Amino acid sequence: MKILETDRLVLRLQTTDDVAFILELLNDPSWLKFIGDFSVKTLDDARTYILNGPVRMYEQLGFCLYLVERKEGRAPIGICGLVKRDSLEDVDIGFAFRPKYWSKGYAYEAASAVMSYGKDTLGLTRIVAITTQENQASTNLLEKLGFRFERLIQMTNDSEELKLLVFDETENHIKKQWESSETKEILDRLSASFFDAFTNENGYKLNVHALSELFIPEAMII
């Protein structure tokens, strides 16, 4: 079943017909290095992974890691979607692509569609992501999507500290408001008023009393 579509890609539910691709993906050296060994070594293991992972999560929560196909030839190239882990409070985005499809913009295209789906359809205002500290490519992609580094965390039964990155719609909205031209103009006026209170050039008399209009009564200037 198709869930999302972009200019070049289709994101759909994984099925047991995808066992060969999933087996290959989960044993790719890049997956083993940056994500981990899921002990999926046979086609039967891959079938179990699909049924107990993405299929079950979609049935329970309405989202999962989707299979990503190129429209051209309908070749599977990776997975991308949303996950709810017991060890994390928030829903997180995940993605993994076969190396021969790296550096072609596919991961960003798929992840952007998933982020829009999460916000607009599922109503998520906060989405997180985890990645190893050495996986700079994933970090760069997440930052391009609007994520920011929050802290290092340690997952259950994992000795390695991972980076937790966060996308917060409310926080981003406030940030955009502060960066608006109108807000910048207000801040510039406040700054100018502050420094003018201490100016005594050319015979100008200090007007420190004007500071009471800029600060709350409890404020202290040191």
Summary, kept brief:
With 222 residues, the chain is α+β, with helices and mostly antiparallel strands. The chain is 38% helix and 23% strand. The protein has two domains: 168 residues, Gcn5-related N-acetyltransferase (GNAT) (Aminopeptidase), CATH 3.40.630; 34 residues.
Q: How would you describe this protein?
A:
The chain has helices spanning 19-26, 29-34, 43-61, 106-121, 136-144, 169-178, 181-196; strands at residues 2-5, 9-12, 65-70, 76-83, 92-97, 126-132, 148-154, 161-168. With 222 residues, it is of the alpha+beta class. It folds into 2 domains: 2-169, Aminopeptidase (3-Layer(aba) Sandwich), CATH 3.40.630; 180-213. Strands 1-2-3-4-5 form a 5-stranded antiparallel β-sheet, with helices on one face. A 3-stranded antiparallel β-sheet has the order 6-8-7. A hairpin with a 5-residue loop joins strand 3 and strand 4. The chain is elongated. The termini are far apart. 21% of the residues are buried. The mean pLDDT is 91.
